[in-house]
């Protein structure tokens, strides 16, 4: 047996060796941990993420607290030859930092988003892109370049949320977009991690203000032409409506009911018989110079034709009700009439914008003090030359 002194020395040497071994193991695993963290940070953008409702992948969010679900089904089809051929000649088609919109809704909503996207991209120098499966692409001869279905998931663009107002211009949104492009003035990205100048971006919102695209309105009118099969069918209907009317003007009427009937609680109103009686009387009473005018023919399109027939057919001796057409054909017909009347909704709004005549709309389209009424700046939603009744 070793003497006590030698046993104590051996125990001390064993303890020192074990400490050195533990320290070496700790340093080894610390180096591995730091390496893994560094690798993860270089492979992921340094910005917060949220779970997308569309495909379960993580997507970045900026100052949006929620993501509006995309109701448009998309697939992975390639960019069409027409869009590729358009290239830089398309409005909003500058190559570089991509800007897109989370498209949703029907024809009217999609047209607002398309037009606003093109106008904003033109003003701020983005490369405007639209989904290759956007429904209105099958209706209009659009020229903006496209992006495939998985673009958001694979490119992780910055997401910017439009304000909560219904029909108005969101200056805050434009400010953040200009800062993203590095061309804005004032506050920079200080204190807001994840926002990177030069990043691609997607706008979430309905963008329902003509001021977003007033800078390209003339070019937009030339671009928003219906595809041949839609235009040809509309032309056939218009010829039938003009047959035997001795050159009298056609006044298109769009009556929106359907889904808005269920949204009265949110403040929406739909046109009643009194509104349409007064609107028809306006166009029946003479021309703008006070002279006589031929009795017009009124052409009515609606998502509730039965209500229109029951309530409007006795308001004028010459009223035509459109039935059996697609929504695109009806819009083409109404927008090509000499004048347009509509009560409420983005579909009727675009019937008016696409027309070349006088547009008359229902002024009290929302209940007083409702969210819709408070959120709409009329000067930024209705064109100044339109007439509210």
Task: Walk me through the structure.
37% of the residues are buried. Helix 7 crosses helix 10 (327-335). The longest helix has 40 residues, at 4-43. The protein has a six-stranded parallel sheet, sandwiched between helices. A five-stranded parallel sheet has the order 5-4-3-7-6. It has helices spanning 4-43, 81-86, 107-124, 151-155, 171-181, 217-223, 228-242, 273-284, 305-312, 327-335, 346-354, 371-375, 378-381; strands spanning 49-51, 58-60, 98-101, 127-131, 145-147, 158-161, 201-204, 250-255, 297-302, 319-321, 339-342, 359-361, 387-388. It has 13 helices and 13 strands. The chain has 389 residues and is α/β, with parallel strands linked by helices. The protein has two domains: 49-223, no CATH class; 228-388, Rossmann fold (3-Layer(aba) Sandwich). The termini are far apart. The model is unreliable at 39-90, 185-194 and 287-292 (pLDDT under 50). Pfam families: Glyco_transf_11 (PF01531). The chain crosses the membrane at residues 21-40. Its EC number is 2.4.1.-. Belongs to the glycosyltransferase 11 family. InterPro entries: Glyco_trans_11.
Q: What structural class should be given to the helix and strand makeup? A: alpha/beta
Cα Rg: 30 Å
- Taking the alpha carbons of the first and last residues, their distance comes to 113 Å
Per DSSP, the total helix count is: 13
How much β-strand is present in the residues?
A: 5-15%
Mean pLDDT: 78
H-E string? HEEHEHEEHEHEHHEHEHEHEHEHHE
Sheet with the most strands?
Answer: 6 strands, parallel
Helical content stands at 25-40%
Shape: elongated
